[in-house]
């Protein structure tokens, strides 16, 4: 149980285009999802907290107009990288916190999306 | 906000030996401390966690200890095996609702178990 699916796993795009990444909780409802960015051989850097039905909370230094987050349902959050540029190339990972009877705080991670902007 | 420091950044051990990774945190309100293992190109996987109401927790070859007074916690892997090679991340969080279950991660430790 507690499976998080992230799609796509790898995307290559041209500079200036937008890319949408989906994060789905497959067997549980997630009122809260998180989006991280991970540089090679580095730690996970929290970009934003996504709450179902409300606006995302962005970490300091993360451009909300650049990284659009939508959490339209209890099982889906999307991250759209708008007008992508080579410096946006990175590994993006989502996670979800399960509600209900599961222990709180535990974050279940998606497999990540490797974005390469040419 | 919370700050988590993790040491060492790399750790090489001989198969069968023990590995110890240490983390310190800054926010005394933190009360949940998970450890994640991330293999190359894969998702982080929760391997063990501890809450502030206990000082130690063990699961087979893995154990975690917590010292709330000193604000540090450690991961211990005994009888290491090649499949233990990965990057390990510690993290800290609080149950306080306003904090939104955010995890603050340490910088990671790259563990290499040599056969």
Task: Report what the structure shows.
The complex is a heterodimer of chains A (118) and B (115). With 118 residues, chain A is mainly β. Chain A is built from no helices and eleven strands. Chain B has 115 residues and is mostly beta strands. Helix content of chain B is 0%, strand content 53%. Chain B has no helices and eleven strands. In chain B, the strands form two sheets. In chain B, strands 2, 4, 5, 9, 10 and 11 form a six-stranded mixed beta sheet that branches. A five-stranded antiparallel beta sheet of chain B has the order 1-3-8-7-6, with no helix packed on it. The model of chain B has no long low-confidence stretch (mean pLDDT 92). Chains A and B meet through strand 5 and strand 10 of A and strand 4, strand 5 and strand 10 of B.
Number of helices of chain A: 0
The major beta sheet of chain B can be summarized as: 6 strands, mixed
Termini Cα gap of chain A = 37 Å
* Sheet/helix structural class of chain B: mainly beta
Give the tags.
heterodimer, A: 118 residues, mainly beta, seven-stranded mixed beta sheet, 11 strands, B: 115 residues, six-stranded mixed beta sheet, five-stranded antiparallel beta sheet, 0% helix, 53% strand
Per-chain topology:
The complex is a heterodimer of chains A (118) and B (115).
Chain A: E1 4-7, E2 10-13, E3 19-25, E4 32-38, E5 44-51, E6 57-58, E7 67-73, E8 76-81, E9 90-97, E10 107-109, E11 113-117
Parallel strand pairs in A: 2-11
Antiparallel strand pairs in A: 1-3, 3-8, 4-5, 4-9, 5-6, 7-8, 9-10, 9-11
Chain B: E1 4-7, E2 10-14, E3 19-25, E4 32-38, E5 45-51, E6 56-59, E7 62-67, E8 72-77, E9 86-92, E10 104-105, E11 109-114
Parallel strand pairs in B: 2-11
Antiparallel strand pairs in B: 1-3, 3-8, 4-5, 4-9, 6-7, 7-8, 9-10, 9-11
Could you provide a short overview of the structure?
Chain A has 118 residues and is mainly β.
């Amino acid at each position: 149980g507690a499976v998080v699916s992230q799609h796509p796993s790898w995307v290559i795009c041209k500079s200036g285009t937008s890319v949408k990444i989906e994060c789905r909780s497959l067997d549980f409802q997630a009122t809260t999802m998180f989006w991280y960015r991970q540089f090679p051989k580095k730690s996970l850097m929290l970009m934003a907290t996504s709450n179902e039905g409300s606006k995302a909370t962005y970490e300091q230094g993360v451009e909300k107009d650049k990284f659009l987050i939508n959490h339209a349902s209890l099982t889906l959050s999307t991250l759209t990288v708008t007008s992508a540029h080579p410096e946006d190339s990175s590994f993006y990972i989502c996670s979800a916190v399960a509600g209900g009877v599961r222990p709180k705080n535990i974050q279940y991670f998606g497999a990540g999306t490797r974005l390469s902007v040419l | 906000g919370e700050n988590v420091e993790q040491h060492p950044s790399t750790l090489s051990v001989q198969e069968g030996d023990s590995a110890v990774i240490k983390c310190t945190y800054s926010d005394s309100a933190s009360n949940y401390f998970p450890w994640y293992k991330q293999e190359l190109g894969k998702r982080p996987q929760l391997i063990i966690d501890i809450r502030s109401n206990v000082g130690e927790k063990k699961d087979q070859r893995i154990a975690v200890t917590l010292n709330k007074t000193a604000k540090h916690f450690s991961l211990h892997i005994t009888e290491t095996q090649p499949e233990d090679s990965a990057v390990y991340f510690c993290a800290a969080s609080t149950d306080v609702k306003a904090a939104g279950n955010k995890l603050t991660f340490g910088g990671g430790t790259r563990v290499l178990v040599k056969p």
